[in-house]
Design goal:
The protein is an alpha+beta fold. It has 4 helices and 9 strands. Strands 1, 2, 3, 4, 5, 6, 7, 8 and 9 form a 9-stranded mixed beta sheet that branches. 28% of the residues are buried.
Length: 178
């Protein structure tokens, strides 16, 4: 552990795997709603990084997105399916990065399930727009930083710790292996 963590009286490390990792990813993704979706592309102005709306997170930690078939992102995923996700659930907590594999499909059932009328802004023909594709991101590893008992408890412990001169951090972090 890092030197700052040796002053911590509580255990702040919890590596998660299988079901517990998937549940943690789902929890944080549901709170965040958006993320940075990064492909392996190093070209272009964004170097393969762009914000994306997470349409669904399942219990296994898989993330689902809707995307245009003619987008740079789709082309990049089809050229190299390795991708990375960065998200932040709240202003103070719920940080995660995930490495995994993305696939592009035209799964009609998934499009129907993930569709929201506001998406007509990008898909002007609605959910039957021929440009709509589904991107499924399957994580294979990652790391998270969160707090154990919510932002209110974390803030309270920090204030008490500062007042008494003791490290009272409510944080938790660890590897994710879904």
């Amino acid at each position: 552990m890092d030197s700052i963590q040796k002053n911590q009286p509580e255990d702040i490390k919890a590596d998660l795997s299988a079901t517990s990792a998937g549940q943690q990813i789902k929890k944080l993704a549901d709170e965040a709603e958006n993320c940075f979706f990064c492909t392996s592309s190093t070209g272009g102005e964004t170097r393969g990084v762009r914000p994306m709306n997470i349409r669904k997170a399942d219990e296994a930690g898989n993330l689902w997105f809707l995307s245009a078939s003619d987008s740079h992102k789709n082309q990049e995923v089809q050229a190299d399916p390795k991708a990375r996700i960065f998200l932040q659930a709240t202003k103070q907590s719920g940080f995660v990065f995930l490495d995994g594999t993305a696939t592009v499909s035209r799964d009609r059932h998934a499009i129907d399930e993930l569709w929201d009328p506001v998406l007509k802004t990008w898909f002007t023909e609605g959910k039957d727009d021929p440009r709509i594709t589904v991107i499924k991101f399957v994580p294979d590893a990652g790391y998270y930083w969160d707090n154990k008992h919510g932002n209110f408890v974390a803030a309270t412990k920090m204030l008490i710790g500062a007042a008494v001169g003791k490290t009272l951090d409510d944080s938790i972090e660890g590897q994710l292996r879904p």
